[in-house]
Design brief:
alpha+beta; single chain; 2 helices; about 20% helix; elongated
Length: about 90
């Protein structure tokens, strides 16, 4: 997070997109491993992922989004997300 803060420059009105993704390549049913679910914050202006939060098993994006936002300073930015975040 310190590195991201050092290389990114936020200004009022920058867009930060919040979205969840499932990385199915991490799944291995033979070993009992399920796919990895992440919520990411993408800065359009910086073209950089600002942070990610793992979605715990038996949970969903709704609980992971607030955790991720608490770790970021997005004051003055326009934060967007899909319908599940509403």
């Amino acid at each position: 997070m310190d590195w991201v803060s050092a290389v990114s420059d936020f200004t009022k009105g920058d867009e930060v997109a919040i979205d969840g993704k499932t990385l199915r390549c991490f799944a291995d049913r033979g070993k009992g491993k399920s796919a990895l679910h992440l919520v990411s914050a993408w800065s359009s202006a910086n073209r950089l992922v600002l942070g990610q939060s793992k979605i715990e098993s038996h949970s969903n994006e709704i609980t992971a989004i607030p955790e991720l936002l608490r770790t970021l300073d997005v004051s003055g930015c326009i934060v967007t997300m899909d319908a599940i975040g509403c």
